[in-house]
Amino acid sequence: MSDPLREKFGPYPWATLVARFSIAETKIALNYTQRSEFAAMLSGDVEFDVSPATPGTDIAVFEASVKRTVVLTLQTAAGAPFTLFTGTLPVSIASTTAGTGVATLTGAITSVAFVAGVATVYIEYTGVWAAGDTATLTVGSTSTVMGNAVVNATCVDTFVGVVSTSPVPAALGSSAGAVNTAIAGAGFTRSVEITLVDEGAATVPYTGTIAISIAYETAGDGTATIPAATVAMVAGVGTVVITYLTTWAANDTCTLTIGNTSTLSGTDIDIVIANTTSVDTLVA
Fold it and tell me: How many Cα atoms sit within 13 Å of 77 on the Cβ side?
């Protein structure tokens, strides 16, 4: 009875024959993969896969010190890796912001090295960013890979989310008589607790300052003051004390504005916050 393995590989021990057979199978599989990749290249069937392609950074939780990692992979249209290419290809980054947001590539690179069809780039953010702003990474820039054109691909990071403040109370109706009586005595103050929140009403644990302002409309000579033009926030919470002065009447208003078209200053990045108010409309 014939022995196909020994006929193919020689009169070796059985374990050696099995090992040599496995090596041969691997080479056959590798050759098949290479032939498939060459076929894809010759037919122009090579493209970029960018991951993530549309990340959507949430401004409420984003930390600029954490760079965004983007993996670039050459592949066939069927999604199989294209490992034949090792070399450099151009990359670029562009920002579209309502403020001063700027996105850059770590190392200020204009090209990135691919190894066996894979490369990694890192995006860094500075300046003021708001929901709707975008940072767009482009790989390819009308490139050719091994003589074949490859269509550009992008990673478009669109900032999402809303950061605002939740004042308590947001509205109240103090008694004009009680206010005036208190002013004539020890004085009258009211406190507003401010919490920084995202669009889901979850507290944003920001420690720093937020701009505030006070305005009032009175029939008489009523005025109001606040200690400073900013309020100190600790872990997303702060308190403002408003002092009422002179004489107030029914329908007078005292309005505290929180945010005042300001930004939250982070280590490297600022985010725009929406204004909110706490309005006291006095009653008789």
Answer: 9
**Cα–Cα nearest to 214, from 228, 235, 196, 232:** 228
> What are the strands of the beta sheet with 153-158, ordered from one edge?
111-114, 87-96, 134-139, 153-158
Q: Is the pTM of this model over 0.70?
A: no
Residue 170 DSSP symbol: S
Task: Report the Cα 239 to chain-centroid distance in Å.
Answer: 28
User: Helices then strands (H, E): number in the chain?
Assistant: 3, 21
Residue keyed to tokens 């937020």:
210
d(CA 254, CA 272): 25
Q: Is the sign of the CA dihedral 129, 132, 138, 141 positive or negative?
A: negative
| Residue 176: C-alpha distances to residues 167, 194, 208, 219 (Å) | 22, 24, 35, 12
Any residues with CB less than 8 A from the CB of 46 and at least 6 apart, and which? 40, 74, 75, 76, 77, 82, 145, 148, 150
Tokens of 80: 């199989």
- Sign, Cα dihedral of 175, 177, 181, 183: positive
Classify residue 51 as exposed, middle or buried by CB count within 10 Å of its CB (0-12, 13-18, 19+).
exposed
| Closest of 237, 229, 234 to residue 256, by C-alpha | 229
Percent of the chain with pLDDT over 90: 46
Region of poorest pLDDT, from 24-33, 44-53, 64-73, 74-83: 24-33
Residue 20 reports pLDDT greater than 60: no
Per-residue pLDDT reduced to its tens digit, 198-212: 877 888 888 888 899
Count CB-CB contacts under 10 A for residue 217: 11
Closest by CA position to 46, among listed 87, 92, 83: 83
**Residue type at 187 in one-letter notation:** G
- Here the tokens at position 187 are 């004085």
Choose among 248, 243, 241: nearest CA to 178: 248
